[in-house]
Amino acid sequence: MEGIIETLNRVGGLGTLIKLLRIAHLDEPLNTEGPYTFFAPLDEAFGELPSETMVELLNGGERLTDFLNHHLILGDLTTDILRDNPLLETLSGNKLLLDELDGTLMINSEAAIVQPDISFVDGEIQIIDSVLLPRKE
Prior knowledge:
The chain is of the alpha+beta class. The protein has seven helices and seven strands.
């Protein structure tokens, strides 16, 4: 089975995410330390972020690691399992709320899972149409 980078490359439309994973040096840990479920935003989703946020992420460091960890859940979770677990904790310690709208799984009512259940060597990838940002409490 393919590693996370190879799988994301095969799916396509995820070049920004691949670049961020490499900057953060998370590609190898994601292949060996899981299993993980990764909510992977499409390139178009990153285009919606303010340019200063993208510059900050591309510079790496703790902000990038926190950002990526906010898209990661410990466990190999398919959409069938996600439907039964509407509240998830990310590796960054934040909560994600899942609900269903017209048959589509939504995360925090803002990101739709547009390509579900893509397996890689150490988990599942759920392709989403928006970047997940931590909620202000």
